[in-house]
Amino acid sequence: MPKFFETIARLPDVYRPVEERLRDQQEVERKFMLPLLAQQASRCMECGIPFCHGAGCPLENNVPETNAAFRDGDYAAAWKLLSEKSPMPEFCSRVCPALCEGSCTVSLNLEPVMIRQIEKAVSDYAFEHHWVKPDAPEKRTGKTVAVVGAGPAGLAAALGLNRLGHTVTVFEKRPQAGGLLRYGIPKFKLAKELIDRRVALMEASGIDFEYGAAVGDDLSLNYLAKRYDAVVVASGTPSPRDLPLPGRDLSGIYFALDFLNGGASAENKQVLIIGGGDTGSDCVGISARQRAAAITQIEIMPKPPVERSPSTPWPQWPYKLRTSSSHYEAGDDGHNVRRWNLQSQKFLGENGKVTGVEVAAVEWELSPTGRPLKFAPVPNSTTVIPADLVLLAMGFLKPEHKFERENIFAAGDAANGPSLVVRAIADGKKIAGRVDKFLAK
What we know:
The structure is a single chain. It is globular, with a radius of gyration of 23 Å. The chain is built from 18 helices and 16 strands. The protein folds into 3 domains: 125 residues, Alpha-helical ferredoxin (Fumarate Reductase Iron-sulfur Protein, Chain B, domain 2), CATH 1.10.1060.10; 136 residues, 3-Layer(bba) Sandwich (FAD/NAD(P)-binding domain), CATH 3.50.50; 143 residues, FAD/NAD(P)-binding domain (3-Layer(bba) Sandwich). It is α/β, with parallel strands linked by helices. Strands 3-2-1-4-16 form a 5-stranded parallel β-sheet, with helices on both faces. A 5-stranded parallel β-sheet has the order 6-14-7-8-9. Strands 10, 11, 12 and 13 form a 4-stranded antiparallel β-sheet that branches.
């Protein structure tokens, strides 16, 4: 007898129509009727040994159990199961690339279960029905903790420490909480009202937030370490990777996050985005909404394979070509926007303004399984890409920390270098446990 994952196909499209979403800054994903998603959840029920919550999800979410409860219409049980592991599922279900789906057993031969979409439906339903309440502890331990940074790792650490009974103060240098969630991810992927809602719950739970407090300038770590029983540094990776080529001082060249936060406009501009990751993709989406005259995104890496590369066998996160909603918005599913195997040589300009970037092709040596190893320039391959707005989206530099006190801990990107939101949240949750053990000594 056929199984559900064999007879029910994964829904092919989760987005609102392109022409509609290009006219606004609303979240690009459409909202599904619950019975339709319940049908999708039934594809999860016969997989045998689940790898999604161990090999896949950094938070070790109760994926099969949550899907089973959702399939049966027991949304309260689904929320209980989900929130036991994930402290902020309303964020992960929107911005996580769904590592769990890469490890889904069904994905061995078919399309994976829509785990992220089900998680989003569960968390949205819980908030809509006011099940998500302030989570103040029954009693306080008398211990105090300072959390430096109100990004995903800092928020997760603060949530965990507060639940354990410690008194937590979060210090954030910006005017509002969220870190990368607010200042690095566009509204069309994550509505900022969701961050405000979560922070309000945290404040109602007894967590204090101090904004405009730049630790290292206004306050020193040593001062916090003396004033508090423990300090968690969760300041992320604030330094973007630069591209110090000839012509870098020309006007019209911006770091991607400055552009995403309104530092420049792409309207009627020829936009060149250097860097092929998620931040570069977000720049494509903003540029399309601002009606750029042309959009090009270049990457020094080779074009990934369409199907899972043998270099990342299941249940690893597959190395493969991914086309974002922003690429589709730029037209022709992004293939007229993205170019691979290109190394930037120098910025070109006139009258102090950038007019283009000189690039050269590179050729990659691949491993026997198809993983890029090293590259070499292709002779006589130099060309110029015209651009009057250049956006640098090549990632961030890992900060170097030298803590001289045993009560200072690092979490998230500040500890491990730039990574995914879900990994930052998982690490913040983990560091809360480490700090709790330290405070119990």
